[in-house]
């Protein structure tokens, strides 16, 4: 009875040494090299339980060959080839490294990131702020209503007899929540009645420029606050539709001055209003003349060439730039044409269909503005125009005092300087 040794103190079997050439894979062999050790790896790791497993037996090593890899394969006594197949096929940790990146051998689920982002943004909703600028009577409100197929802009029937014409340009904003397919968008329309309607129109763009900068300033103040909101309300103007009168001759000096002064602070999209007043030939000649005048005046309208991210964007934007300014017709009335209801303008010669590409370029403008470039308009506003204003504002001498005082009042500190809060 004294010769029986408990299993805890039994000596472990000696592991044979690894030959010098074992471990170097052969170029012609698809399997890893097999040595005299367990699983063809020379020296094997002990089982998780710490109890030695005799060579040729089954144990925890079988599960390890599937889940962990080379170290815990089947024993050589059971079959080294089976161990090598498991080690080579299942023991790569799910990826294959190469110079071009990693190829997944199994499903992880990173493709659900886009779905997560979609759900997040669906809950949050979207903001889009659009400004319309142009003379009275060019159909600004009607066109916006046609774009979104809703009464987002109240139609102005002209000045009443007892109503005074404003001496300066007024800024009127109205917001609506539009929902389509479960997607909610807060649309804010900024109208500028009185623009270009005076006898003397000197500096009539200043109220508009001031309003645009005030929205940048409001956003900047929210950013530099210590206890700022989780989601800063975005009232910045993302797009400015500038309506050009369909004269058929050339741009007016007021048109050139406005676009030249505001093209660096907002995304300007020039459009020719009421294009049904011109023939097809007159419209094409007028568009070419407008493009040439804009180029000669150094006016950059959206999408700018320097903002093209890659060759695909450049190709798409080049086609858009060649078609601009869009000659459009707006209408929120429906008529029966060939057995179907269409939006259009009824004339003595027939119905001008708004959404018909053969009649006007409204469909191109809508696809460009909403379906393909709405998000890019917001990104250019934030990354280019707002950053330009922000850098200028923070670099001004003494320009930070109003922002610093806001921080001081909100936090109750005795002194507050923007530099103390790590603002670049």
UniProtKB/TrEMBL annotation:
It comes from Sphaeramia orbicularis. Belongs to the TRAFAC class TrmE-Era-EngA-EngB-Septin-like GTPase superfamily. Septin GTPase family. Gene3D superfamilies: P-loop containing nucleotide triphosphate hydrolases. It is found in: Cytoplasm. GO terms for molecular function: GTP binding. This is Neuronal-specific septin-3. The gene is sept3. GO terms for cellular component: cytoplasm. Residues 124-396 form the Septin-type G domain. Its main location: cytoplasm. Pfam families: Septin. Signal peptide: none annotated. Residues 1-100 are annotated as: Disordered. Residues 66-92 have a biased composition (Gly residues). Residues 52-65 have a biased composition (Low complexity). Keywords: Cytoplasm, GTP-binding, Nucleotide-binding. PROSITE patterns: G_SEPTIN (PS51719). The keyword rRNA-binding does not apply.
